[in-house]
Specification:
This protein has helices spanning 2-6, 26-34, 46-55, 57-61, 97-107, 127-139, 146-156; strands at 16-20, 38-43, 65-69, 82-88, 108-118, 159-166, 171-177. By secondary structure, it is an alpha/beta fold. The protein has one domain (2-177): Vaccinia Virus protein VP39 (Rossmann fold, 3-Layer(aba) Sandwich). Strands 3-2-1-4-5-7-6 form a 7-stranded mixed β-sheet, sandwiched between helices. The radius of gyration is 15 Å and the shape is globular. It starts with a helix and ends with a strand. The mean pLDDT is 96.
C-alpha cells in the first residue's frame, strides 16, 4: 500500500521531506532513497522513534535523515520548511484531525505538497472497511469517506486536491498543494 501511495508522489532531487507518524521508518527509508535532500520522521511513540532510528541508521549517519519524537498536533519545525509531507497509515489516529491538518499545512512550503495514504476509507466494499464502518467510533478512529478526505484537505488550506482509491483493497491516497 505504501508503494502504491508513494507512486503517485513526485519527489524532487533536493526535497526536504517530513514523514508524520513514521512508525518503524520504512517510509522514511524509501523517501531518503528517492531524493538527495533530507527526510525527517516524527512519531509520538518512543518505541517507534527507536525502531525508525534503527531502520534508518545509514541515512542518519549520512545526514540524510533525522528522526524525532513529537506530535502532529505541535510539529517541532518552522513554518514552510517542507517540500513534501507524507502520512502513511496514521492520519486516522491523529488526536484532532482538522487542527492537525492545519498544523501540517503550517510546515509545508508554498507550492509544497501533503500526501496522505490510508489503508481504508468509509464506504469501501471490503470486509475490513465494513468492520471499520461499524466500529471506528468505538476505536477512536477517524473513518472518512472519499469526499470527507477531500474536504479535510480543502478546509486545511490545500489546493489542487486529488483523492484516489484502490477499491478492491480499500486503499485511499490524498494529495494537496499549499498555494
Amino acid at each position: 500500500m505504501t508503494d502504491w501511495g508513494l507512486s503517485h508522489v513526485s519527489v524532487g532531487k533536493y526535497d526536504t521531506i517530513l514523514d508524520v507518524g513514521c512508525g518503524g521508518g520504512r517510509t522514511v527509508s524509501k523517501l531518503a532513497a528517492a531524493t538527495e535532500g533530507k527526510v525527517y520522521g516524527i512519531d509520538y511513540s518512543e518505541e517507534s522513534v527507536a525502531a525508525s532510528k534503527k531502520t534508518n541508521a545509514r541515512w542518519i549517519e549520512k545526514g540524510r535523515a533525522e528522526i524525532r519524537h513529537g506530535s502532529v498536533s505541535e510539529l517541532p519545525f518552522p513554518d514552510g520548511m517542507f517540500d513534501l509531507v507524507t502520512a502513511v497509515e496514521t492520519h486516522i489516529w491523529w488526536p484532532n484531525l482538522a487542527a492537525d491538518m492545519r498544523e501540517v499545512f503550517r510546515v509545508v512550503k508554498p507550492g509544497g505538497k501533503l500526501a496522505i495514504v490510508g489503508e481504508l476509507y468509509r464506504g469501501a466494499n471490503t470486509r475490513v472497511a465494513r468492520l471499520a464502518d461499524k466500529y471506528a467510533a468505538q476505536a477512536g478512529m477517524a473513518h472518512l469517506s472519499v469526499e470527507e478526505h477531500r474536504e479535510l484537505f480543502v478546509q486545511a488550506g490545500f489546493r489542487d486536491v486529488e483523492v484516489m482509491t484502490e477499491p478492491d483493497k480499500a486503499w485511499i491516497c490524498g494529495f494537496g498543494r499549499r498555494p
